[in-house]
Every structure is written in structure tokens, then in C-alpha cells.
Amino acid sequence: MISKQRIEAPIETELELLSAWLDGELEPAQARALLDRLKRDPDLRVNFEGFNLAGDAIRSHEVAACHAPQFVSRVCRALEAEPTGLSPGAWSASKWRRHAATGMGVAAAAAMLVVFVLPQLRGSDVAPAPGPVAVGRGPDKAVAAKTAGPNTLAARSPQLDAYFRAHRELAGTGVMPSAAAYIRSSGEQDR
Amino acid sequence: MHTDGAATRLAAGRMNERDADWQLVTRVQRGDKKAYELLVSKYQRRITRLLSRIIRDPSDIEDVAQEAFIKAYRALPNFRGESAFYTWLYRIAINTAKNHFAAQGRRAPTRASAELGDTENSDDALVLRDVATPDAVLLSKQVGEAVNRAIERLPEDLRTAIVLRELEGMSYDEIAHAMNCPVGTVRSRIFRAREAIAAELRPLLGTREDRRW
Prior knowledge:
The complex is a heterodimer of chains A (191) and B (213).
Chain A: H1 4-7, H2 14-22, H3 28-40, H4 42-59, H5 61-65, H6 71-80, H7 88-122, H8 140-147, H9 158-171, H10 177-190
Helix pairs in contact in A: 2-4, 3-4
Chain B: H1 2-12, H2 17-29, H3 33-52, H4 58-75, H5 85-103, H6 134-153, H7 156-166, H8 172-179, H9 183-205
Helix pairs in contact in B: 2-3, 3-4, 3-5, 4-5, 6-9, 7-9, 8-9
């Protein structure tokens, strides 16, 4: 017989939490912690089985009489051979992570393109780093001017630089500078 | 969809019994096999009882029950919680029983060919018979006696709490209101009642406190 004093004791035992969880009467955070303990603690799992059996027995003697003590162990052994299944949701999450990683790679490549390559393609008013062209002398200058690209301002004539500067002001510095020039011209014609 | 409802209830801070199953299901879906063992432990008797009403040969019942649980494990990644876990498991068990008959070259007993038609799901059209072996009848009687003995020994407040919970399906709040006591007291009473009944059943059904799965 269970004494009344013990019954009314306000001590929150782990088994009492287990009993409340079976009835869906636990706070979600407490439930998560209890499930973690159930995973680790075989004694708690035995009590889980006993409490469920008690509930079955109250509701139906026939159902409770179907209890097979080794049934769970048998299923567990059979499950050992089964691959661990992941839900499509979980799979999607990992797939999403893979896609995110790929996207970040693409973004990094694009950033590299913008920072390092585009300025090279557009040209720059900043003087280039000293190189063989800039430091060339005498007859080497002509050769250097031939082999150097359009960014080598030092190798160009002042008239040509003025022309390029004027052209840049007209065309702008967007990704389609030459097209911008046409757009402006067209707009001016409309007026 | 259940998952939305569960999320709402979880946000509100309280779960119900179905949400407790859903918590286990989501753990299994994340690869936690131990969580599935808990679902097997919880529902093995109900599934075995269901199959015992379809399959005559007692030696086949446990094999088919095990097969049903394995099939459910394999299918669980696609279970989205639209129905209660047990409802979903029940259907898998019924289909496994049908496959069992097909593998033996026999047809599953259907309602059209039987006198009895008591099924939990009418569209399954399977006849659930109450033909039990003498051993099963005896064990069922012993379980009934043990449970009644345990309940009679309980103090009145414990007996009332456990009956309102297990037979009437009332929530702790409802029981607290009915019994005019705090919810914490209800929780404690139900726990003590369960402990006492489980202890009474232990020697009869082979469950021991020191047994490991």
C-alpha cells in the first residue's frame, strides 16, 4: 500500500516526469531532456515499458496479455541490420547546406572577378606598378609601347590619354560603358 | 497538418500525447534508433493484439508483428504526421498481414466471407476475429485480476486520477478541475498509480526492473 504522505510529497522524480511525458503533459524543453536521458538510461526505458503496460492493462486486459517480454529485443536486433533512415526533410536540409556551400563558392569567385579582374578590363587612372615598360629607356620604349596593353598610360602619348579620358567621361564606368554612350546619344537625338 | 498543430502547441508550451509520439518520430527521422525502440515498446501489444485477430496461427503473429515494425521503420522517413503514429502503424500492420496471407497462397479473411465484422478501419475490409487460444484467454484473465487487484489497493484519489486519465482520456488540467486539486498533485497521483499497477503486472508478464532491452 502506498502511503498518502508519500503520494503528496512535492518531490519531482525522473519517473514522475516520465509518467507526465507519456500523457503529453511536459514542457517541450523538459520533454527533450527526458528523451535524451531515455536514450542513455536502460533503467528508465524499462520503466517506460512498465508504465505503458500499465496503461494498456487498464484499458484492455486482452491487449496487455499480448505482451512479449523479448519482442523489443528481437526488433532491435533486426533493426541493427537496417540503414539509418533520414527523412526527406533532413535530406533536404543537408542538400540545402551543400547548395549553400556551392553558392558561397560562386559568390566568392564573383567577388574576386569584381575586385581584381574588372578594374583590369576597364582601365584605371591609377598609375600601374613599375614594370619593365615604365622603366624602359631609349629604343626599348617603342617595343614596350607595342607589347604593353591599353592600361600602360606611361607608354602612351598625352593626346591619346586626353582622348581616353574624354571617352570615359562620355561613356561612364559601368559594365557596358560603350552602350551607355549610345543610350545617351540616342536620348539627345530624341530631344 | 499535424506538424503545424504540434508546432503551435509546442509554442504554447504544452504538448499532448500525440505530440509525444511525434517527438519520438522526428528523432527517428534524424537517425535515432533508440527512439524507435520506444515506439516499438509502446505499441507492440496493440499491434500484436490486432494481428492476433487476423492471423490464426499464434506462431506467425509475432513474426508478422516484427515485420510490420521493420516496414514501418523503413517507411518512417516519409511519415509526415498527417495522422497519429498509431493510425499509420496500424495500416502497415494490416498490409503486412495481407502480404503474409498472399505469401502463403491464401486470401486474408475479409468481411464478405465472415460473420463478424468488427474492424477499427472499415476500408480495410479485414475481419478481426476474437478467436483466442486457451493460453491467451487465461493470461488475459490473470492480467485483469492483477489490474483490478492493484486498482482496488490504491487510495481513492490515486484510483480516481488514473481512471480519469487512462479510461476517460482527460488532461491533467481537466482532472485537476474535477478533483479540485493542483495539476502537480494530479501528476504525482497518476505517477504513483502507474507505478503500483506496473509492479503488480511485473511478475505476471515477465517485465523486470533489471531487465535490459
